[in-house]
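Q: Predict the bound structure with flavin-adenine dinucleotide.
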Amino acid sequence: MFIDARSLSSDENLEADIAIIGAGAAGITLARALAGTGLKIALLESGGLEWSEEAADLGAGALGEHRYGALEAVRLRYFGGTTGHWGGWCRELDAIDFEARDHIPYSGWPISKADLKDYYPKAQTILQLGPARFDDFAGVAAEAKAAAPIAPGGAMETVLFEFSPPTRMGEVYRAEMEASGVAIYLNASVTDIRLDDALKTATTLTVARDGGAPVRLAARQVVLACGGLSNPQLLLNCDSQMAGGLGNGRDQVGRYFAEHPILDAFASVFALSPATGAPFAWRDTQVGKQRFRPVFQPSDATRRSSSRLSCLATIAEPGPKFDPVKGAFEWWDGRHGPQETATALAVALAAHRPDKTPFHIHAINAGLETRPNPDSRITLIADRDRFGTRRIKLDWRPEVADLEDYLASLEDLSRQLLASGTAVMRIAPDARARFHDETVWGHHHMGTTRMGADPMTSVCDGDGRVHGLSNVWVAGSSLFTTPGAANPTLTIVALALRLADRLKQEMAA
Ligand SMILES: Cc1cc2nc3c(=O)[nH]c(=O)nc-3n(C[C@H](O)[C@H](O)[C@H](O)COP(=O)(O)OP(=O)(O)OC[C@H]3O[C@@H](n4cnc5c(N)ncnc54)[C@H](O)[C@@H]3O)c2cc1C
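A: Predicted complex:
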């Protein structure tokens, strides 16, 4: 049932067993999993059923030194959340991503991948992926494996992305949610979470709306599912009873902000022959209704033996075309480094190609894992939105040291491609100089209320419960202790399903 919060009278006594704040991938998953349990569920969403400027403005904020997108545009604020324009690239985190690794300070989730084993398959269904498991080549797609131009067993290996349609949660699950019995409050922005006198248990939410005074909603359990930028923003703003905000006694809320730096065309490959160049690995492979793309990643053994961070590198669609007869590019897009260097390499390469027809170069694009950094963070600024909530400043700190791990992986990939007779790779000689100006991002907001066993370096425990509070929980990628290299939404959905089971236990106790 949808309820426009603007139509509520301010003396209305709203209540719920479980209040979920935010109706994006995490919030809708949680609400669906809890619907029909007999529990009274309230889902509070800041926006309406469609995008609006007024709701988007609530997400505006300031940036630190590093370039990033406008904060009101890097996520969406309406029913369905940022799945309203996500790309649908899906992949599970690897088992090693959850482990404590000596060479990665602050690594080590309080849960392991095994804790998600029952939830990832269900998350795949929710995101409209096929039933097959990732990297199960035999079961998934012999074609996808064949399109990958390196042999298995090297330092780099071929794994798969699978594409969600992409699932727009607010459209796909709207009718079901409307009929579910969950009270879905739209245009309802939570601005405060009030605690009991002992300051251990949340009792009431303050819900701001346009056109009237805030309303209150009493809840027995409270879940923040506002996304990786707004989860810490809300906790930090809840300082009416606790200085510094909820769960922030040790100044951890908002720290460890992680993104996936996306590096486009920091390396290029030239196919050695039209035969190997034709299918290449940039094409998606359709198997039934499932769509996959091969991607290169440092193998588990490499990540353990060389202390290396992960990356997921794909080969892009055909780029500039080189004519070996003329010894020049037919066109040049400027993204592949200095044209003279590329031309010299292409001339040398062309000498080894029996075929003299023009050939394309392909960019290699990658998303990188980064080391957790407590100084990469979100803080509150003085500026307030129209409901009085202080806006945030995002100070993202991608490090050149993280690029070094990627360059090492590219060196390995280059050797393997050459050894397999598939392609020659050129790593941009100016990669380090280009890093800060040309790095873009995946719109993945992680780590800002990270899970951990130690409250000195984390905000939530392994269930997602805020340390020191009995009934305040977090859902979403702000929980990620380390970001891995895989895009986060599949894991967000899996974690939300796990939290739903945990909340059912809690309510039954
Ligand atoms: C352009 C783009 C492409 C992307 N592509 C991919 C991809 O290919 N693969 C992938 O895995 N991920 C991708 N992502 C990221 C993906 O969209 C997010 O990981 C996912 O949507 C996060 O889910 P969430 O529920 O945590 O947050 P969101 O989906 O952002 O939902 C949070 C909700 O909380 C609401 N809210 C916030 N504050 C409050 C408040 N105080 N009170 C009430 N409601 C509130 C918001 O309005 C919003 O609806 C992409 C993102 C973008 C922007």
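A: Residues 400-419 form the longest helix (20 residues).
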